[in-house]
Design a protein that fits this description.
By secondary structure, this protein is mainly β. It has one domain. It has strands spanning 6-7, 14-15, 21-32, 38-49, 52-53, 57-64, 67-77, 80-87, 93-102, 108-118, 122-128.
Amino acid sequence: MRQSKLDDPLTGETRRINDDLMLGGFFELRYDIPKTDWALGFGGERYDNAPFVRLDERQLFELRPIYTFLYVEHKDIFGMTGKVEWFNVTDGDEQFTRQVYTPRRDGSLLFSEDRSWSAGPILTVSLRGTF
């Protein structure tokens, strides 16, 4: 978690530093099954950043609510590690908001843009190592 503030040189309003990480984190819990080459795990991540501000626009990119993952891993496939991972288990999405002003942010709103993108579930199969 981080806190920042500055007086906007254009508007005089107090705001955070551009794109500053406000709150973020990643967690992973893993269980290596005893006396086997198998492991199971799950985890998640979320990062909230302050808006990105320019002279004539303001943007905000958000991930909601959280990206999560589950995986099964085998640690000896011909000397390599194989993993099957299901990403975005909780169906998180990405949201983007943008306001463009004319001639600058202290002027009139020219247009705004709002998008939402759902990544859906992502299945990944991987092998790493040498044999």
